[in-house]
Amino acid sequence: MKKALFLIVSLAFSLAAAAQDFNFIPEMPDDFAQLDTLPRPKKFKSRHMLGVEYSYNIANISASPSVGEESVMCPLNFGVFYTYYHPLWDQMNIFGLKTGVKYGQEGYQTERSDFGEICTLVEVPLISQFKLDFSICRLLVNVGTYWGYRLSTDKAGGFDKYDQRNDYGVVAGAGFGLALGRLEFHLEGNYKFSFASMYHPNKNGEMYWILAYPRTLMISAGIYFNLW
Asked: How many structural domains does the chain have?
């Protein structure tokens, strides 16, 4: 009798212990388990734009020694540009990168018969474009560099062995933009200064060297289309 009672009590304790490990409530999915790992929604959207520009240039050189250089008006300047606006760390939506291909003119005039010319050239700029947005208006600030190659010249006989056709330098300026839907209209003023002399230093002879660095004021108007 005692053995039977002992077995019954032991069985009861075993069942009670097993019942503690058994979960009578089915497990439910935790909708908030991955909440901390979800990416935060972006505050700003990147923009990709493609556009065309026309510019009217006032060109000259900085020559040493001076050759009596004066400015010339260069109206034939066109370009195709790509602009990418990207927010830095999704916090500062003021940065952009602008590049493209540009066909244009530069040069100078002088009363000296052995100097003075207007060159046509192709350029590839690389510009950091900073922007500040005010509703549909946009203030633009440009700082960058460029590489160019002179294609032709209007001086008699064309290029000679003293001419340097490669060009490179810096560009800086400011402008104003107007965003209307997917279209943007830009009006800018930029100043370009070359670090490459138009001529080899010994153009005037071995005794009297000359350095002639092109500089150009560019007033441009452009229309851009937001790709996405």
From this structure: 1
Q: Which of 27-31, 47-51, 56-60 has the lowest mean pLDDT?
A: 27-31
Tell whether omega for the bond before 65 is within 30 degrees of 0, i.e. cis.
yes
**Is there a domain that residue 33 lies in?**
no
Q: What CATH number is associated with residue 166? A: 2.40.160.20
Q: Is 18 inside any structural domain?
A: no
Beta strand 137-153 with 211-226 is unpaired
Terminal Cα-to-Cα distance of the chain (whole angstroms): 88
Q: Count Cα neighbours of 145 within 13 Å in the Cβ-side half-sphere.
A: 6
Is residue 179 included in any domain, yes or no? Answer: yes
Query: What are the percentages of helix, strand and coil residues in the chain, rounded to 5?
Result: 10, 55, 30
Exposed, middle or buried: residue 1 (CB in 10 Å: 0-12, 13-18, 19+)? Answer: exposed
Whether 208 maps to a domain, the answer reads yes
Counting residues of the chain whose pLDDT is more than 90, the rounded percentage is: 68
Residue that has been written with the tokens 């927010």 in this structure: 87
Which domain, by its residues, includes 136? 46-226
Q: Please answer whether residues 213 and 199 qualify as being in contact, where contact means their C-beta atoms are separated by less than 8 angstroms.
A: no
Range list of H helices, 22-170: none
Beta bridge partners of 184: 179, 224
Dihedral angle over CA of 122, 124, 130, 132, nearest 10: 50
